[in-house]
Amino acid sequence: MILESNFPSAAILLRTQIDTAMRVNGLKHLDNPEIQLRDVLHGQKTFRDLISIHKTPKQKPIKMQDAFLLEKIVEEEPWIKEVYKQTSDFVHLSFRPLFASIASTDDTDGSITFAISGEDIAKSEADYYEVCDAFHATSKLSGNILVKLLSSENYRI
Length: 157
Fold this sequence. Notes:
Layout: H1 7-26, H2 33-41, E1 51-55, E2 61-63, H3 66-76, H4 80-91, H5 96-100, E3 102-106, E4 111-114, H6 125-151
Antiparallel strand pairs: 1-2, 3-4
């Protein structure tokens, strides 16, 4: 996506990588991980249906949904919150991808020209470096979390 200057697609790939890191990080917050993960592997549940070891103030179980998973990973990696927010605009219905396709504007008549193509010519090279750096950092984060889990004396999964 970077070589083709396709920023919206690169941002979507980065967001999916963040989702992976959130779920990998979420493994250490699972209640009864062996049983719950077996249910996921057998197709009986999705990850978002799983229950964490944490409870609400009213002692209700907390499901492993995106808001909770993001909260937990941000506790250790605060930088992810803003990247998650920015890349979410490309995944969900928003105007951000539409804005990315604006080629030019004309203030005299209020017109906007859109460029619909696989190449995003309006982005600076620095934006692409930022996406690559964030993708690399997120991939490294997932790997580091897994190594820590697997090498921990309290390994529960």
